[in-house]
Each structure stands twice: as C-alpha cells, then as structure tokens.
Amino acid sequence: MKKGQRMSAAEMDVDKYLLRIGHVAARPSVPTLDVLCRVHSCHLRSVPFENLTIHSGGHLRLDLHILYNKIVNQHRGGFCFENNGLFSWLLSEMGFEVTLLSGQVRNSITCQYGPPFDHLILMVSLEGHRWLCDVGFGGSGFHFPVSLETSEPQKQQGHGLYRVTKDEGGMHFLQWKGDEFGETDGVEWTDLYKFMLEARCREDFVEMCDYHQSSASSIFFCKSLCSVLRPGGRLTYIGYRLITTTFPTEGGGGGIKTTRELKEEEIPAILEETFGVVLPSPLIPKDEEITPPTIMY
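Predicted structure:
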C-alpha cells in the first residue's frame, strides 16, 4: 500500500494479524477455549497499551481499517477502544461469537465510576459459557479470559486473582490486591470496573474516545504512556520514566518495580527498542496531575 493511500476493509487479513501478535501456528479452524486463551495472551504480549498518537499530534479514530493499519501494519498499539475494538474483529473472523460491552472504570482518585462507554470490553459466548475478554486495560489487565459464570476467585498463573460479582448496578470486575492469596472476601478486593451485558457497537464509544483525548480528568490526556506484558513482568513508559515490573511467582501483589528516569532525547529510542513503536511525528512527553472529574456515576 502506497503512503497516504487509504486501506480498504478487504485488505484486513486474519493471518497477518495472527503473525503480528506472535501466533505462529496455522490459523485454527475451530473456535475453542484453548484458541481464545492463546490469542488473548499473545495479543497482550505483543500489542502495547499506549496513547502516543494523542501526544504526537494525531487524533484517534475507531474505524476498523484505521485500527488494523495502525496495530497490524505499523506495529503500534492503542488504548481500550482500539485494542479491544480490533481484537473483536479478529475473534469474529475466527468464528467466535463476540459482544461489545460498555464498561465504567472505577476512578482511583474519587473511587467513583466513570460514565457509560468509559471502557470497551468484550464478551465471548462459547459452548454455552460466557467469557470476559479485555486486551486494553494496561497494568491491571488479565492474561486469559475470565469466566462470567461464577463469582468465585479465578487465578491467573500466579500473577493475579480476579472475580466477577453482580448487584443491582450490574456486573463488577475485581482484582485481589493483597500480598498473598488467602481469605478472598476481605477488603483487599478492589473493584476495577463495572459493566452491563447489553450489546453495543463501536460507534457508541466515539464520544468517550474523544473525551479521553481532550479531558484533564483523563489519564490518557494527562500522561504519555506505553505498556506491554512480558514473560514474568511488564514494561511501562510514562512521561519521562521507564518502569520495569517483575511479577511474584505467587501472591496477588503488584510485583517489584524499578524505575529509570529518562531524558527527552532518549525516549524515541526507548520506544523503538523496548516496545517496537516508531512514531510518524515527534512525541511531546507528558506526565501531569489528573484533575478529578466533577460528575460522579
């Protein structure tokens, strides 16, 4: 495709997408839970959670062909609307029954929820069982799909403990924040976001996608960031810092973090060498305080 030429939906290729996320085996012919788990994990280990377009003079759009060109052809990443938006297309093309859901993230400052369509997540229905998929939630993301059929804790290979509960406000997705697994109904459970099971479409999320690119109450506007899962840990760039997180072999804690301060001239090379990200325009690093939102939900 020539530079500046618009890509058509017909040029979106499943096999190329699978190669991009490191799924080197042949495309599976049957949608199974094992396949779902593999592509979910592969996506998290290959596609960064990042918002660098916002901080390099661009504007994010949710058209599928644009997302495919960015994530697959340009080897970039994105935030939830992008990563989960395109991942839903991949799963559908592979034969999975996928439903887009609206999530409301719990604000760490106010402890209140964001507005509807604050977060895009996926539900996959497979052999009578429903699974929560999310490859766009950054450092609190889970490696493999989480069952929606139980409120019991679900362990993720020693690197996290999660559960899904339900009340009159909808479904709640929680993460265990204690140092070790043990009693699981104490105060150490942290609500990450809530959601309803009503089917949505990509267009429903456009307004909130714009909000997160322009609001002083959004982390995506206030901080330039890029993060990706790696075996045994996570690498995260924020503003002028590179953070390496090493996961514990057991326990639900956040892992051991080491931080390296960066000079502005170092950042482009760090992004390319560490995350495989090359930006078309210069990045303006940003790490400002987030203004608490005034409207509570």
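Summary: The chain has seven helices and 13 strands.
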